[in-house]
Amino acid sequence: MTGDPLFADGFDWVVLAILVAKAVIGFTIVVVGVIFMIWFERKVVADMQNRIGPNRAGRWGLGQTLADGIKLIFKEDLKPDRADKPVFRLAPYLSVVPAFLTFTIVPIGGVFTGGNDGGVELFGRRTWMQVADPPVGVLFLLAMSSIAVYGIMLAGWSSGSKYPLLGSVRATAQMVSYEAALGLSVVAVVLLSGSLSTHDIVAAQAGSIFDWNVIATAAVPFVVFCVAATAELNRPPFDLVEAEQELVGGFHTEYSSIRFGMFYLAEFMNTITMSAIIVTLFLGGPAGPVLFGPPLIWGTLWFTLKLLVFLFIFVWLRATLPRYRYDQLMDLGWKRLIPLSLGWLLVIGAISIGRDAGWNRPLTLVGAFSLGVISWAALIGAMRVAKLRRGGDEFGELSTATERVG
Amino acid sequence: MVDTVVFLVAAVVILVGALGVIFSRNPVHSALMLVMTLFGVAVLFVAQGAHFLAAVQVIVYAGAIVVLFLFVIMLLGVDTAENLSSEPLAGQRPAAAVVAVASVGLLAVLAVRAVQVSTGAEATTLPLDSERSNIAVLAEVLFTDYLFAFEVTSVLLVIAVVGAVVMARRPRPAATDELEDDGSDGDDLGVERHTQTEAELA
What we know:
The complex is a heterodimer.
Chain A: H1 13-48, H2 64-74, H3 85-103, E1 119-122, E2 125-128, H4 137-158, H5 162-193, H6 198-205, H7 213-216, H8 220-232, H9 244-247, H10 257-282, H11 295-320, H12 326-357, H13 361-389, H14 396-405
Antiparallel strand pairs in A: 1-2
Helix pairs in contact in A: 1-10, 1-11, 2-10, 3-4, 3-10, 4-5, 5-8, 5-12, 8-10, 8-12, 10-11, 12-13
Chain B: H1 2-23, H2 27-47, H3 51-75, H4 92-113, H5 134-143, H6 147-168, H7 185-201
């Protein structure tokens, strides 16, 4: 509960230099990560669709992203006549900045086992291997993801064109809806770790694989978080925001040149950051066996490997799944994920109270689960009754849902 | 030294934002300026060690309430500068003047009598408990001493959600066939957004 030990001995120039260095390194990691992630996504999707993918710029097309970036910088920057100029210029930054800021709370390494607290020595100062460790930790993640909504919303509105506006309205509703499920699944993790700080959450998962939150919370919050995170990222199968068959290009239709590039950058930054957050919250962050050599390197290595798995899964989802319909999306978010994570949270709460108070463990489990099943049944029953009362036939639900969405 | 600089920067941001809310001709710009003010206040909270309050300020106010404002502004199509030469609601301007004078007077009294007028306690930046974080202390107080107030608040929010849903529901199609396509989708969406945000708060 002490936060980063960097500030233990007051604030001086060395501390400031370390802070700046950490911020610069963190930013570099994310930007370089984005460059390779875009290449990786294009290559993997190409492979899955029996194509070759980018192969002209550099070896295996590795320089493709760089070439695209340079091209975007030198392209003409168009501004629509009816655009709201200041907001139009502001929106891309509002997308990029939260995308990076979220990454600052991710511990990318450190040794947490054997009595170590995950600190590293730098110029005689101890510090964590993350840019910042705010006491509100995970809440910072939620705050940033609610700020990220502004970038998309304002981009769509300020373009002064109807397709971007529709895209951004969809995006905002989607992101705000799934934030609730996201937050509720995080609460389960916080409950077990007893702290909001990402450093403490990772420290609580050090040790065996059974301490990892994905197992300790019995996988349900993990699944909910992954689904909600995909929706937050507006990635397939939840990419209604940029459904090109309906909305041209979505909220960034009117953007060109490097302003479009910034939305692109933000999207991939968010993908990397969310994967990193999933690894941190549920898969122990840098936790993993040390095979040989210095343990510090292994922490970062395991973290990177776990990160790559999730990055691959996100690409995989994009290459294989069809897009959700809007009413299905809202249905999944509000009627399934939120009740599920809320119920699971209560079960976990009951079990941890029972553990502290010394209740009979199997009995607590059975009681909590049967209560959960009963409430689930009650919820389903209430929805059925409501549907019957509305006089909904087979298509009744669909038509009312689409009408409501407008 | 650091505290003073942080305060000055945050104060400038807050004041510029507050003035911007009033003087912007476009409602969307006003809402954005409001976000800027809220951020400035959040920074001040952090400077005072109230991290939780700062996070909640950003999540609830900037992330939910102003987003709701923007939704309503965008969907109801009032995002253009309005003609302010005539008074939209009679009696508002004299009333506003009275409230403004009263507020300034109150602030002046506080400034003249200096410190300790508002709460009787000196400003402090110390944590509530040196052993535990503020969040743990806050949670304990909230779920023991103030549990009743906390639960009553949540019931209030549930009532608001239920009320909004009841009002937003269309009359049965069988009874009112002619209302089927009255094109009131925009209003519907606005109200629905309201319920979602309230649900989030709860």
